[in-house]
Structure formats: structure tokens, C-alpha cells
Amino acid sequence: MAKTMAKLQAQAKRTSVKKKAAAARANPKAKPKQKFNVSHFRAEDFKTDGLRSYAKYRDLGMSKATNGLLQAHVIRLLPPCDPKVVSKRHYHDVDLQMIYVLKGWIKGEYDGQAVTMREGAAWLQPPRIKHTVLDYSDDCELLEIIVPADFKTVELE
Questions:
Q1: b/e 86-104 (16+ beta carbons within 10 angstroms → b)
Q2: CA 29 vs CA 22, 35, 44, 149, 157: distances in Å
Q3: In a domain, 21, yes or no
């Protein structure tokens, strides 16, 4: 009897999972419409109107192309690094934030752990992780992808 009950429960669980998966495919949540987008490099596209005063940003047009689903930009950090300006503890109220080092290096502190990322390194900053920029090379450039495109940054100091 116990074996039969266990088999029935396992079968019911599998059936429930299959039904949920089928329902998700049949009725997907409405996602923002996306359009094809290409952003070719132009030096004049780097602007100083971004989040950080010590950086220039090159918007890659992904926010507009995805109707706000995500934001992607290249960040060119301005030399020399001044810890009095850059080392402000903060977090971003995001669903996802991924950074890739295109050139140079950047040193940061993430929830108490100091890490230096060099050219070719990529990292994921979990939502609302408290972090601080500690230092960066004079040639530091980063690719940053954030979901959603519109988010808040909260300074903690």
C-alpha cells in the first residue's frame, strides 16, 4: 500500500510539473518588444552624463532596442583614480548586473571581499550587493549590462 501511495504521489508531482511547463509555453508573459540594434564604435559617443562623475559612458542603444528590458554601455574610467571621489559604498537596485573588463584593471570591494579584475575578467554583481570602487588603471574600460535599464543607485556613505 505504501509503495502504491508513493508511486501515485510521484506521478501526481510529474503531472503537475508538466502541466505548469505547458501552461507557461501556451501563455507566456508579455515581454517588451525588441528590435534589431547595432552600435558601431565612435569616440564622440562617450559622454560624461552617466552615473559616475569619474567616467565617460558610451550607450550601446540596448535600452531603446529592448524597450527598457536592459541597459548596456561601455564605461571608460577617467584617470587618474582618486579614491576620495570613487570610493563611495553603494548598491544598485537591479535584477542583474554583469561587468566585463575590456581594457586595464579595476579593484573593488564586494560585501567585504577585495578583488582585482583584469582585462578579460567578467563578474556578476548580485542584486543590491554593497560594493566600493577602490582603484583602477588609467586605461580602464568596462562593458556593463544591467537589467532592468531603469534602476536606482543607493549611496550608503
A1: beeeebbebeebebbbebb
A2: 13, 18, 39, 19, 39
A3: yes
pTM of the entire predicted model = 0.77
Task: Using DSSP, state whether 120 is helix, strand or coil.
Answer: coil
SS3 state of residue 30:
coil
Distance of alpha carbon 40 from alpha carbon 90, whole angstroms: 31
Q: Which three cell numbers stand for residue 44?
A: 564622440
Q: Domain containing 11: what range?
A: 1-30
- 90 and 135 housed in the same domain: yes
Same domain, 137 and 69: yes
Predicted confidence (pLDDT) per residue in 57-97, tens digit: 999 999 999 999 999 999 999 999 999 999 999 999 999 99
Which of 52, 53, 70, 74 has the alpha carbon at shortest distance from 62?
Answer: 70
Higher pLDDT, 25 or 155: 155
Beta partners for residue 147, in sequence order: 96
Q: How many domains does the chain have?
A: 2
Let me know: does 116 contact 107? Beta carbons within 8 Å: yes
Q: What CATH number is associated with residue 123? A: 2.60.120.10
